[in-house]
Amino acid sequence: MDVLTFAVIVLWVVVIALIVALFAMARQIGVLYERVSPMGALVNESGPRIGDMTPLFSLKSLNGGEVAIGPRPERSTLMFFLSPTCPVCKKLLPILKSVRQAEGKWLDVVLASDGDVAKHQRFVETADLKAFPYVVSTELGLAYRVARLPFAVLLDSKGTIKAKGLVNNREQLESLFNAHEMGIGSIQGFLETQPAQG
């Protein structure tokens, strides 16, 4: 009987120790979550700044028609710079299709790149991008100083740059919309202005 009582007491001590350890770990995870905030699109400081008017362009789309980059009454524009050889760009295409469908009441999604037109036409066919305006323009990329891909720029209806940055996943792409809704330049900039919690 003494051995059984001792074993039960030891088990209860172990259970209580595990509960304390679980609460300590949960608290630590919460602290880490606050310290490692989700980062938005990676903003570069080159090219037109957030809040500037976009350079104006009128470009031919590979899918027919003209694409106007600039003010558009009651329509915002998401320019997504991509390449047929960029694996991250290809990974984001289903997300762009979803964004185009979900936000179509107020947003136009324009795909942009440079290089060989024939290669881009094949890419439009193989990736099923016929529903998007797709422009091939070296000047557009140079105007925004696009150095790495995929890169996105969000314009409001007045042609003002509301958000921009390098986007590698859905969260970074959505951070452009969040920054626009919050009236801030970027999620990164917003997080940098917040007081540190510790």
Summarize the structure.
The strands form 2 sheets. Strands 5-4-3-6-7 form a 5-stranded mixed sheet. The chain has 6 helices and 7 strands, in the order αβββαβαβαββαα.
Low-confidence stretches: none
Structural class of the secondary elements?
Answer: alpha/beta
Widest sheet, order of strands: 5-4-3-6-7
Largest sheet: 5 strands, mixed
Terminal Cα separation, in Å?
Answer: 50 Å
Shape: elongated
Helix tally equals 6
Radius of gyration, in angstroms, nearest whole number: 24 Å
Level of helix content?
A: 40-55%
What series of H and E elements makes up the topology?
HEEEHEHEHEEHH
Number of strands: 7
Strand content: 15-25%
Average pLDDT rating: 87
Topology, please?
Elements: H1 2-35, E1 57-60, E2 66-69, E3 76-81, H2 87-102, E4 107-113, H3 117-126, E5 134-136, H4 138-143, E6 151-155, E7 161-166, H5 170-182, H6 187-193
Key structural traits:
single chain; 198 residues; alpha/beta; five-stranded mixed beta sheet; two-stranded antiparallel sheet; 6 helices; 43% helix; elongated
Describe this protein's structure.
There is one protein chain. The protein is 43% helix and 18% strand. With 198 residues, the protein is α/β, with parallel strands linked by helices. The strands form two sheets. It has a five-stranded mixed β-sheet. It is elongated, with a radius of gyration of 24 Å. The mean pLDDT is 87.
